[in-house]
Design a protein that fits this description.
This protein has helices spanning about 1-20, 20-45, 45-55, 70-85, 90-110, 120-140, 150-165, 170-190, and strands spanning about 115, 120. It is mostly helical and about 190 residues long. The chain has one domain (about 1-190). It has a two-stranded antiparallel sheet. Strand 1 and strand 2 (about 120) form a beta hairpin. Helix 5 crosses helix 7 (about 150-165), helix 5 (about 90-110) crosses helix 8 and helix 7 runs antiparallel to helix 8. The termini are far apart.
């Protein structure tokens, strides 16, 4: 259920941002981040509120998120910084990469992952990459604005970030690193 939520909510978020200009998107994501921080702070301060939160969202929470902030805060923060620092198209595609890649990696890694690096599997990372590349082709056809080289760069950067993430939440790092790599490529190679 968590993987499906990750996919659907992530893609819906991309759709909403695609309908807004950059400034409006930044304002929306800023408000969402403030609300997420307020909710997370309140539930972690007040045990009764946390119990209610866990009861309502238990199937979407990892065990450690019951006592710590959820990945949603990190995701929204990563999206906000990506929108502030990088071109909107790169930030949006990095959101797509995370929305499709992370659940793909988790599904394949848990079912067929045999070759491990830290807690992640090579098989899961390959699923992440394939899903991100496929989503990139769809993104290019529907929203345009990205060259195939930029799509490959973003997908590879997101995959490597997910595979090697350990201390920082990959919901935060994937949008930033993938957007940064795409923008650097576009800057240096004028693509």
């Amino acid at each position: 259920m968590r993987r499906l939520y990750h996919l659907v909510s992530g893609l819906f978020f991309v759709y909403v941002i695609s309908q807004l200009d950059r400034r409006s998107g930044i304002i929306l994501v800023s408000v969402m981040l403030a609300l997420a921080i307020a909710i997370e702070t309140a539930r972690l301060i007040f045990p009764a509120l946390n119990t209610l939160f866990i009861r309502c969202f238990n199937m979407l929470l990892r065990h450690e998120e019951k006592r710590k902030p959820t990945g949603s805060v990190w995701y929204i923060a990563g999206v906000l910084l990506s929108l502030l620092i990088f071109k909107k198209e790169f930030a949006m595609f990095s959101m797509v990469i995370l929305a499709v890649g992370d659940p793909s990696a988790s599904t394949v890694g848990k079912s067929w992952g045999r070759h491990r690096i830290n807690r992640k599997s090579i098989e899961g990372s390959m699923a992440f990459l394939i899903a991100a590349l496929a989503a990139g082709l769809i993104f290019q056809r529907t929203l345009g604005g990205l060259s195939f080289v930029v799509i490959i760069t973003g997908a590879i950067a997101g995959t490597i970030t997910e595979l090697l993430s350990s201390k920082l939440d990959d919901n935060f790092t994937i949008p930033l690193i993938a957007s940064g790599c795409m923008q650097a490529l576009a800057y240096f190679f004028n693509t």
